[in-house]
């Protein structure tokens, strides 16, 4: 059970790292203040979560990395258009919502 919790924490941390990375790009069409508030929120949540997993930073989840790399490639192919960013935003939101449902699933 403890290993599973640590694994989940590593997964959540990896998703937060990649989310902050992709939204940290200067080319997004969102208002600067809104984007910075979102990025800072993700970074703060990641910092608070980090001690829970007590994991080395070299651990990563290839599926998460591949997913965000695909989104990055998609943005590049679409020249960082607002429409492309809306798709990335929706995908990221769905990913975070699924994660929330999974983490709260057994606690309700």
Fold and architecture overview:
With 108 residues, the chain is mostly helical. The protein has a single domain (2-104), classed as Growth Hormone, Chain: A. Helix content is 77%, strand content 0%. It is globular. It starts with a helix and ends with a helix. Keywords: Antiviral defense, Cytokine, Disulfide bond, Secreted.
What is the top-level CATH class?
Mainly Alpha
Element-by-element helix/strand order? HHHH
Let me know the average pLDDT. 79
Largest sheet entry: none
N- to C-terminal distance: 18 Å
Number of helices: 4
Quickly give the structural class. mainly alpha
Large-scale geometry: globular
Structural domains: how many: 1
Portion of residues in beta strands equals under 5%
The total of beta strands comes to: 0
How many whole angstroms does the radius of gyration measure? 15 Å
What would CATH call the architecture?
A: Up-down Bundle
DSSP helix fraction = over 70%
What is the CATH fold-level name?
Answer: Growth Hormone, Chain: A
GO cellular component, one term: extracellular space
GO molecular function: cytokine activity; cytokine receptor binding
InterPro entries: 4_helix_cytokine-like_core, Interferon_alpha/beta/delta
Keywords: Antiviral defense, Cytokine, Disulfide bond, Secreted
In brief:
The chain is mainly alpha-helical and 108 residues long. The chain has a single domain (2-104), classed as Growth Hormone, Chain: A.
